[in-house]
Model the fold of this input.
Amino acid sequence: MNPLLVPARVVSLILCLACLCPVWLSAQTAAPAAAAPSVEQRLASLEAYLSNGDPSAALKDSGGRIPAGLTTPSVGVPGPGHNTWMMVSAALVLFMTLPGLGLFYGGLVRTKNALSVMAWCFGITSLVTVLWWAVGYSLVFGKNFGSPFLGGTEYFFLRGVGSTPNPDYSFWVSHNVFATYQLAFAIITPAVLIGSVVERMKFSSVLVVATLWLLFVYCPLAHMVWGVNGYMNGVWNAGASIKAIDFAGGMVVEMASGFSALILCLFVGPRLGHGKTPMPPHSLVLSVVGTGMLWIGWYGFNAGSAVAADGVAANAFMTTTLAAGVAAGTWAVFEYLVRGKASVLGFCSGAVAGLVTITPACGFVDATGAMVTGVLGGGIPFFACTKVKGWFGYDDALDVLGVHGVGGTVGLLITGFFATASVNPNLSTNLAALLGKSLWVEQVKGIAVTLLMAVIGTALIALVVKRVFGLRPTIEAETEGLDLDEHGEEAYIFDAKS
Done:
């Protein structure tokens, strides 16, 4: 053996050890792996599912931080029960528009315009779906603008909106389910609005108005009320400038659509023959069926706004039922006292008015508050539709202002007086000092901001569309009926001989 090779081998061995030494030392000095969660932490994370709470809260240390790598299988995973309820609720709210609102509105117009109302509902549904996917959802529920008035761009084209929950809005509901649920709200709001201008507005102009209104009125207002950093989000934004509360859409849906409907009908003008020619509903049966569908769908609208299958949702379910039933009877009683007869249309109008009025309050008030809401929700809108409308002579064809605008406003004020933390524990965090004292003042502020946005925004939109596209069809088309003129179809009524 060559003696020169031995030292060479020794040197090589020493060099190898020298190279490995830093690796060994770093392994010895590396931070220890994060500890696995304890059994108690795992159970607490799982129990958060039952209370609709934060599953990661049990993992946080005294400084409110979660140690690196520490998690449980419950964190970031949708809860089956809550997710199921929200998917059902989304379907129920969509059911309110198609076919609920279509039938309710369609039965109240003349036969020659019944299908046009259905077309408007379908057209708005399709249009808003595209807008919501492209930009709408992000403008409402995003936050990278850092603005209390508008969301952000991070969810454009629903980018990143998957099945993992978005903890800004729910710990247990998939982000894509939440986005779909909110889509159904965005659909029905402009669909309600156009009820004031049925029988006399071009289909193309309806879609243009709906587009601009969604982007420039609905999206900013919805972010201000429901966005995690919204200007008027009193429940979840401790730094909100206006600490108003709106559980399911008294400001965002009802007031916004109702007062916008008034402005739009003033720009469009009255129907031909308004005040001179009788214009009775062509099918109250369709309207009754539509009312029933709206009532059923409203459970998804109101109870679904808890974004969980929890006790708050259960309370909203109960208060919605109480208010609607009482308001239907209240409207009928007033009608009987004034006219000597309680009409079927009166029962329908009262039920819808009660549902509207309880919308902002349903998750904040108890059974007593719901009964008060039902009485006022049936009486005040009745006065608005039968007296105020006649005094001013505007042609709000389907009483969108009287039922939705006035009803939503009344409901928001009732919420300010009857909201209680015993019904909704979320109120105890940011609003305890206001309950029973000055919450109604915050509600008035929210009402004022909503009124200004709806009136000014809709006026500008209507003015632009009127100048650029025109709002009304020709006199001939309006006389013949929008069904045949704009859609080439007729809602034929066959008798027994057909």
Q: What stands out?
A: The two ends are 116 Å apart (CA to CA). The chain has one domain: 80-487.
